[in-house]
Amino acid sequence: MLLYQFRMGTNPRRVIIYLSEKGIGVPRHELDYAGREHRSPTYLRINPAGRAPTLVTDDDTSITEAAAIVEYLEELHPERPLIGTDPLSRARVRALERLGNDLIVRCQAWLWNLTDAFPAKEPRPSIDVAEHVYRYVGELLDILEANIGDNAFLAGDAPTIADFTTFAIFQTARERFDQPLGSRHPHLDAWYRNFRARPSADY
Ligand SMILES: N[C@@H](CCC(=O)N[C@@H](CS)C(=O)NCC(=O)O)C(=O)O
């Protein structure tokens, strides 16, 4: 098995944090983002989308999309589940994980316009567009805030894949781009600070 990743990338980090929380070791290949290795013919044969993460299995099959990779690994390692323990809890975790995924997608459009760090994605960043898109980001933060309530983790009292997905974009916004994402949402802010202290959250 081989995981293709960008160590700092939001979506690869969903898998990296999962592996750490699960206690699984998988060999990794760090893609050279600046050198655009992810758009090289060799990598495009592995993942035609030219994005990361990709997990290549021992029989040379590519699994793309962070959520699919995590759920695949979770099926291979059902012990100490991080996706819920019964149909209802799994449904709740998946619902929250998908909200986290939506948050990533909206935040990407926001950050691409807020900064000039993604010229290949947004050659003409616009603060006006960033401010407009942020309304859609805020809508999801409100929903997540209402869901977490006083829980320590998004889906209750134990960490799940919903936390890993949502944490990854908070961390990108806060640590890479100095944007206090979620700081006006007291429950999410406390959740972020607590999760940041976990060893899995270290780069
Ligand atoms: N929906 C995909 C998104 C993957 C994605 O956008 N990855 C980013 C890194 S966070 C990437 O590869 N960006 C490079 C590019 O799009 O050129 C997933 O969940 O894995």
Record the SSE blueprint.
Blueprint: E1 2-5, H1 10-22, E2 28-30, H2 41-46, E3 54-56, E4 62-64, H3 66-76, H4 87-114, H5 127-148, H6 161-176, H7 186-196
Parallel strand pairs: 1-2
Antiparallel strand pairs: 1-3, 3-4
Helix pairs in contact: 1-3, 1-6, 4-5, 4-6
Q: Summed up, what is this model?
A:
With 203 residues, the protein is of the alpha+beta class. It contains seven helices and four strands.
Task: Provide tags for this entry.
203 residues, four-stranded mixed sheet, binds glutathione
Looking at CATH, which topology of the largest domain would you report?
A: Glutathione S-transferase Yfyf (Class Pi), Chain A, domain 2
Task: Kindly provide the radius of gyration, computed on alpha-carbon positions and rounded to a whole number of angstroms.
Answer: 17 Å
**What order do the SSEs take from the amino end to the carboxyl end, as H and E?**
EHEHEEHHHHH
How is the largest sheet built, in terms of strand order? Answer: 2-1-3-4
Compute the number of strand runs.
4
Category from helices, strands and their pairing: alpha+beta
Count of domain modules? 2
* Helix fraction bin: 40-55%
Overall CATH architecture of the largest domain: Up-down Bundle
Question: Termini, distance in Å?
Answer: 22 Å
Major beta-sheet overview? 4 strands, mixed
